[in-house]
Amino acid sequence: MIKVGQGFDVHSFTDHRPLILGGITIPHPQGLAGHSDADVLLHAITDAVLGALGKGDIGTHFPDTDERYEGADSAELLRTVWKMAEEEGYRVGNMDATVIAQRPKLASYIPDIRKRVAVLVKADLSDINVKATTTEHLGFTGREEGMAAMAIVCLVRD
């Protein structure tokens, strides 16, 4: 059995907050605004897993109206959703994600992000791909107002 899901997320930049992306802290003068830690990449991945499982989206499971999730670690949210996948007998076939941001430049952080994501979803590193792109100074990401991320995941059950 194979199931595929996709996820997409957007957060604006804000001052006085660390930038957390893919579960790691990236040096940058601004972080991302959100009810949780606003890890745009892990949110997209979490939504992709939920989509593959047919279980709604991150806002359904972890609403921003619930004080329990204020400042929540997005890695823990993904772990919770990943347990749902495991309970149904799924593992990662492969995962591909893209971060869309003019700045900061992310190439040097991608290996650590891939390792962190692989650990969170208990996958082989070779099954996790993360890349980054700019929008050539176009749109809100090009104006450095925020970041976006998209992810697709293939879940496999033997």
From TrEMBL:
GO terms for molecular function: 2-C-methyl-D-erythritol 2,4-cyclodiphosphate synthase activity; metal ion binding. Coiled coil: none annotated. 4-CDP-2-C-methyl-D-erythritol 2-phosphate binds at residues 9-11, 35-36, 57-59, 62-66, 133-136, 140, 143. A divalent metal cation binds at D9, H11, H43. GO terms for biological process: isopentenyl diphosphate biosynthetic process, methylerythritol 4-phosphate pathway; terpenoid biosynthetic process. It is an enzyme of class 4 (lyase). HAMAP family: IspF. This is 2-C-methyl-D-erythritol 2,4-cyclodiphosphate synthase. It comes from Paludifilum halophilum. The gene is ispF.
